[in-house]
């Protein structure tokens, strides 16, 4: 299984065939920005109609961080954004981008990998993918935006993957935590032993 190929990575430009309304510049904060499918029964089905679930074992989790825009920055200010992703207690980071304004676009096209081994079923099915956009500081990083997925939500999607989707993020530490503070485009693939991609 070639996970780089399945996510379309290797530093390629964004997929021109991306047709969801949330992938366009105007629609990123609109109705198409939510990556959740409208049909809640989108999980993979076994032959008998039973929905697959994450089972004990080894997994490969691949996150392809593409770009961010509409960062919650005051007029005239800039930030040095980086992405922090935590999965099953292990954190990984993208590089920091310099001097991005509220109208600027930060482009990463970076691949991050996790390989959790011999994970318990309960831990996997309660596990989260926590995504933070941070303003890289000299001594301390400041949160710009936050979003989380359940591992099982991604795993139950078609091909165990969320592909080239925009997510609308907010800052739970701010006074107006419901206000969008970033749009992030990414892909996530989760593969367990014996999974086909």
From TrEMBL:
InterPro entries: C2_dom, C2_domain_sf, Ferlin. It holds the Pfam family C2. Residues 41-164 form the C2 domain. Residues 1-51 are annotated as: Disordered. Its main location: membrane. GO terms for cellular component: membrane. It is a single-pass membrane protein. It is found in: Membrane. The keyword Isomerase does not apply. GO terms for biological process: plasma membrane organization. Residues 11-22, 33-51 have a biased composition (Basic and acidic residues). It comes from the Eukaryota. Transmembrane segments: none annotated. Keywords: Membrane, Repeat, Transmembrane, Transmembrane helix. This is C2 domain-containing protein. It comes from Strombidinopsis acuminata.
């Amino acid at each position: 299984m070639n996970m780089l190929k399945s996510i379309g990575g290797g530093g390629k430009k964004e997929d021109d065939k991306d047709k969801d309304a949330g992938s366009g510049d105007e629609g990123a904060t609109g109705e198409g920005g939510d990556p959740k499918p409208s049909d809640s029964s989108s999980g993979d089905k076994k032959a008998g109609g039973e929905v697959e679930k994450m089972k004990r074992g080894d997994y490969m989790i691949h996150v392809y961080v593409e770009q961010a825009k509409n960062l919650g920055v005051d007029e005239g200010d800039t930030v040095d954004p980086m992405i922090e992703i935590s999965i099953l207690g292990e954190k990984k980071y993208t590089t920091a981008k310099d001097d991005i304004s509220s109208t600027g676009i930060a482009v990463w096209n970076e691949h991050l990998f996790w390989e959790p081994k011999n994970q318990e079923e309960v831990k996997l099915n309660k596990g989260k993918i926590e995504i933070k956009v941070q303003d890289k500081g000299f001594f301390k990083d400041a949160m710009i935006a936050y979003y989380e997925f359940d591992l099982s939500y991604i795993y139950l999607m078609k091909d165990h993957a969320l592909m080239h989707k925009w997510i609308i993020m907010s800052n739970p530490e701010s006074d107006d935590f419901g206000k969008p503070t970033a749009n992030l485009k990414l892909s996530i693939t989760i593969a367990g032993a014996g999974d086909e991609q």
